[in-house]
Specification:
Elements (H helix, E strand, L loop, with lengths): L1 H9 L3 H39 L4 E4 L3 H4 L9 H9 L4 E16 L2 E12 L1 H7 L6 E4 L6 H4 L5 H4 L3 E5 H7 L6 E7 L5 E12 L4 H4 L2 E5 H8 L7 E6 L5 H14 L6 E4 H4 L1 H39 L1 H9 L4 H36 L2 E2 L7 E3 L2 E3 L2 E2 L5 H27 L3 H5 L5
Helix pairs in contact: 1-15, 2-13, 2-15, 2-16, 4-11, 13-14, 13-16, 15-16
Length: 428
């Protein structure tokens, strides 16, 4: 009886009810879309960082991150790789040697300081998004003359190198050009190697395009005397929400294989700055919820206090006929709940359409900003939303809870009315 009366009362002023529902529903739509965008940005950020170079998990020598010394290697890297790939939840792993060095060519007087990354091309293709960014040649491939069956031995020993597009322009080189790479080797030795440019990559980020030098891991292990050792193993997991569990499983797998001590860390420990940025995104979501509550307070309080003023005499008559204050209180709360449910349905419907657009097509912000770099890693400028339960549940709960919370004030005013004073419209 109470519920049906509340529903009928809600439509006594149809226009006001519809405007209130539309306003709150629009606010919920905006809130859902913004939360979807921020959650999608965080998911995309983690995935693109993982696929650009970071990985979800990294394995190093225990002192490597602190000292960044080329001497701090992971020995028996092939066995560590086997133990890592056998761990539950691991999707792919890529071993790397990392050096700082310089590069030059005979076509330019420029000598550029670069970051040299030696990778296993086949593993990196399954791990990284970088092969998709190659604009000329191949991804860390030998020069064509080295692959010919009848090639002389001196041709077969030639090594291929992948350069960033901006770096290639600075060195005035193209596919087939020769370059020299110098870097500090092991035990104080200096390594100077000749390479043939077999690939050019363009990520539209300066850290990659002007400093990127990628070579074959096998070639560099032989040339530097690293043997079966690497500086880093990056790991991609199947589910980014289970990274802490995968980290523990990898540690157990490496320990159970009887291998030497290694440091296994999730991306949030390797790059605490990124983790801090994510906490700021959570704070931004909290601010969005707070702003939504402020908007709700204006909408629902205005509507319900108008209801109270318009029906004050009616409430007084009901009290005079024996109605109790708590029944009037429940009636106002039911009306507020109906407004909240209708607004939530509208917000979820329209918000769901917008979120679907963000998920399927994304939002291309290239007209505002190009792909940007973060800690030497590239982030593309097409942002996609998330469509997980949090995107829809949290904003809806905030809206419904906010409506019921703000409805308490006018509902309590009605519950405390005196029959005679209400009939005379002396006060609310």
């Amino acid at each position: 009886m109470l519920v049906s009366m509340a529903w009928r009362n809600l439509w006594r002023n149809r226009r006001r009810t519809l405007l209130t529902v539309a306003a709150i529903g629009l606010g919920l739509t905006v809130l859902i879309t913004m939360v979807s965008f921020t959650e999608g940005f965080m998911d995309m950020f983690i995935e693109q960082l993982a696929r650009s170079s970071l990985g979800h998990v990294q394995i190093h020598h225990p002192q490597y991150r602190e000292r960044q010394s080329t001497q701090l290697l992971i020995p028996s890297a092939s066995k560590v790789m086997e133990a890592t790939e056998a761990s539950p939840g691991v999707k792919a792993a890529s071993p790397r040697l990392l050096f700082s060095g310089s590069i030059r060519s005979s076509l330019s007087s420029t000598v550029r300081v670069v970051r040299i990354v030696a990778v296993d091309p086949e593993r990196e293709r399954h791990f990284s998004a970088l092969p998709d960014k190659v604009v000329a040649g191949g991804f860390v491939v030998p020069p064509p003359e080295a692959l010919a069956p009848d090639a002389p031995e001196r041709f077969r020993q030639r090594r291929g190198v992948l350069l960033g597009a901006k770096l290639a322009r600075q060195l005035k080189v193209e596919l087939g050009s020769k370059v020299r790479v110098d870097c500090a080797g092991f035990h104080g030795a200096t390594v100077a190697l000749a390479f043939v440019v077999t690939g050019i990559i363009q990520t539209d980020t300066d850290a990659f395009d002007s400093q990127m030098v990628m070579v074959s891991l096998k070639d560099f292990q032989e040339a530097t005397g690293a043997g079966d050792a690497v500086h880093e193993i990056s790991v991609m997991v199947t589910d980014s929400t289970r990274i802490p569990k995968v980290v523990e499983d990898i540690r157990e797998s490496i320990a159970s294989a009887g291998l030497e001590s290694t440091e296994v860390l999730g991306w949030y420990d390797v790059n605490p700055d990124i983790a801090e940025m994510f906490s700021m995104v959570d704070a931004w979501n909290g601010l969005l919820y707070l702003l939504m509550l402020v908007i709700l307070s204006a909408g629902i309080l205005t509507t319900l206090f108008m209801v109270v003023f318009e029906r004050q005499r009616e409430f007084g008559v009901q009290l005079a006929l024996g109605a109790r204050g708590r029944s009037l209180f429940a009636g106002i709360m039911c009306e507020a709940l109906f407004i909240g449910l209708l607004a939530s349905a509208l917000g979820l419907f329209v918000g769901g359409i917008l979120v679907a657009g963000l998920v399927i097509w994304g939002l291309d912000l290239s007209f505002i900003v190009d792909g940007f770099q973060f800690n030497g890693m590239f982030i593309e400028n097409v942002y996609r939303g998330a469509a997980n339960a949090k995107v829809f549940v949290e904003p809806t709960v905030v809206v419904l809870a906010g409506i019921l919370l703000f409805a308490l004030w006018p509902a309590m005013r009605v519950a405390r009315m005196k029959a005679l004073a209400a009939i005379r419209c002396e006060h609310v």
